[in-house]
Design a protein that fits this description.
About 65% of the residues lie in helices and about 0% in strands. The chain has a domain of about 40 residues. It is built from 5 helices and no strands. It is an all-alpha fold and about 90 residues long.
Length: about 90
């Protein structure tokens, strides 16, 4: 599953840290987590995702977006500063 990105362990660790930090900060409530799941799946063009598969999707997302530019662009989708819809921000 090569997307033409340079995947290094350092970037993967950084990506995991950012995702963890981000989810702790902003999505504590259950409905917010559901909303985040939906938006991530929508961004990755996935439909009908089961909760068990969400962890796999996060790992997939980290692999795809281990490049810092892509990760930053992805996380900006869910921040208050960038209100563009996932369709407008799709990278691939």
């Amino acid at each position: 599953m090569e997307m033409g990105l340079d995947i290094t362990p350092v970037k993967e660790v950084r990506a995991k840290y950012l995702v963890k930090k981000y989810r702790k900060r902003k999505y504590r409530k259950r409905r917010h987590i559901r909303k985040l799941q939906y938006r991530i799946c929508h961004f990755l063009n996935l439909k009908n995702v089961i909760k068990k598969d969400f962890i796999k999707i996060l790992k997939l997302k980290i692999l795809i977006l281990s490049d810092e530019f892509f990760l930053g662009k992805f996380l900006s989708l869910f921040s208050g500063t960038n209100r563009k819809s996932p369709k407008q921000c799709r990278l691939f």
